[in-house]
Structures are given as structure tokens and as C-alpha cells.
């Protein structure tokens, strides 16, 4: 509370607004030689485990799509709380453990790393604090470089972590010969344009979010539904809604929606949809939106700009929030902003403490 909020009522809002700048900071702080080292670790590993907690774990889940699509490797992604109990037996000198922690001090991440190191694994650490224990335990570490984050609900560090994981995967893709240098450079350029588009559209998105809040404020809970590379974003949005708004929400994989979750959908229940970036997955989502509307749910749709299909679905029970269209792998970054704003605005509307949710601390040491 003693730290300047730069004119914003809460650190969380200031930090969301800072995200585009933090993305550039992440991009420019990263040195080519460390990226290359990290890529070699990825390409040389017999098996890869990504371990983290909470928001960092959701970033790790997105990274599994990056690595599998850009590098052709399928990492095991697991909570750092599960790793030492159920996974370490398979860890050996050929294993690479990618540990993600904003604070670099999360107890479960550190104890996982001790266990992994004892068994000879190599550690690639990603952290926002280069003086942290995570950095010291890593064979190679990469700075998230989002700048200090004071709000307990993580925001700009999430977007910057996503970017860092994307850049590492891209570098490994280039190193393995899957993409050439020209494509690599083009993709780097598109990172800059996403950052500037997000900054240009921030206020407009925030206005759309403020209007959408009416669809959640009187609801007893809700779902955030998505699929594919944006499914971890649904989990992350649900976590942010709990922390910042004390609003019970659950992330649902769109294909699972009709296998049970749909039963709760009715008037007084919120259903949020993040339209997937893959065309077929997006098309499979539209009928779900219609079903939710028909069931009387308050519906909020997060989409990419220029989604024409959605202009047909406009009733008073639906709100539409648009984020800049970004290429597939950058879409999770683009979607993060309106989802974080939504949790923030709902929290403000419901009078929640926002920056300091009860029981929670910025780093869960043990
Ligand atoms: C994020 O909003 C939460 N406060 C929490 O889930 C957090 O991401 C988790 O505790 C992990 O923290 P870390 O990244 O510092 O390891």
C-alpha cells in the first residue's frame, strides 16, 4: 500500500495496463546466447517436465502446445505439488525440468528442484526475480523481466511468462531446423505488433469489460469455456475470478461441456466463452454459446477482433469483449488482458480487496 500505484486505484489494474510494456521488456531483456542454451537443453533432453503452481502452471500448460507444435516434443506438465510425490521416480540425468515461478521462491517448486537435482536432472528456470532461489538452483535461467508485481493476483507476469515460453520454443524450433531464420524473425516482429495493438486497444477493452460485468455480478458462479491452446486460459481466468472477485468459476474444456458441466447452466449462472483460435474449434463453440443463451445463462463471449459469426448472436443476455487478432501462438497473450480486466472489474464491483485477497500471499513458501 505504501508503493505508488501510478494514479491507478489498485496495483492489479496498473499491472494489467503495464502488460504491453512488460512484453517488450521481456523481449528485449532476453539474450540470444541464453535462448540458444535453453534450446539446446530442450532438444537434448530424453524427457521434459514442466513444473509450476497456480498461474505459472497455466502458463506451463500453454507451453506444452508451443513445444509440441513448434519443436515436436511433448513435455509432462504438472503441479510442483504433485511432482516430488508422483513423478520423480522417472527423473534421471537425461531429464530436463523446466521450472516456472514468478517469485522464484514457491516452496513446492524449490523442493521439486532439490529432488530433481539429486537424480541428476538439468534445470531450466524461468523467474521474475533473478536473485531468487529458483535462479540459483537452475543450470540455466531466463528472466521473465516483467518488472516487480505487487498485486497478489498475477497479471503482467503471466503474459510475460507466456511470451518467454513462446520465445524459447521458437528458438528451439529454429535450432532444430523446423523453422528458418526468416520465419523466426517474422515471428519476433509479430510479438512487437501484438504488444502495440494491446496497448492501443486497452481502454476500449476495459470499457467493454465494464459493460459485461452486469452479466456476472448477480450470478452465483460460472464457467469459462475454451479449447486447445486457449483452454489453459479458461483455467487461468477462473483462478483470477476466485482471487480478485471471490467469484466461483470453473474452467471447462469445450468438448467436455456437454458431458456434465452443462447441467448447471440456467438463469443466474454465468457462462463465459473464449473463442478458440482454431477455426474448427471456434465453429464447434458457437452452438454451445447458443445452448447457453437458450438455457437462460448470462453469457460473456471473449473473441478476437473481426469474428463475424458473432455479430449474429446479439441478445440482451450476451456481452461481447474483443481482443486484437493475433497469430495462433500469441492468442493466449492477447486473450489474457480482457480476462484479467474482467476479474478485476467484477472484484471492484463486488467490493473485494483485489490486491490482497484473504489467506493468500504473493509467494507460497510452504
Ligand atoms: C496467481 O494469481 C496466484 N497468486 C498464484 O496462483 C501464483 O501464481 C502461484 O502461487 C505461483 O507463484 P509463483 O509463480 O511465484 O511460483
TrEMBL record:
UniProt EC number: 2.6.1.16
Organism listed in the record: Infirmifilum uzonense
Keywords, ordered alphabetically: Aminotransferase, Glutamine amidotransferase, Repeat, Transferase
Record field: catalytic activity: D-fructose 6-phosphate + L-glutamine = D-glucosamine 6-phosphate + L-glutamate
One GO MF term attached to the UniProt entry: carbohydrate derivative binding
Range within the parent protein: 244 to 609 of 609
Residue span, SIS domain: 37-178, 205-357
Name used for this protein in its record: glutamine--fructose-6-phosphate transaminase (isomerizing)
GO annotation, biological process: fructose 6-phosphate metabolic process; protein N-linked glycosylation; UDP-N-acetylglucosamine metabolic process
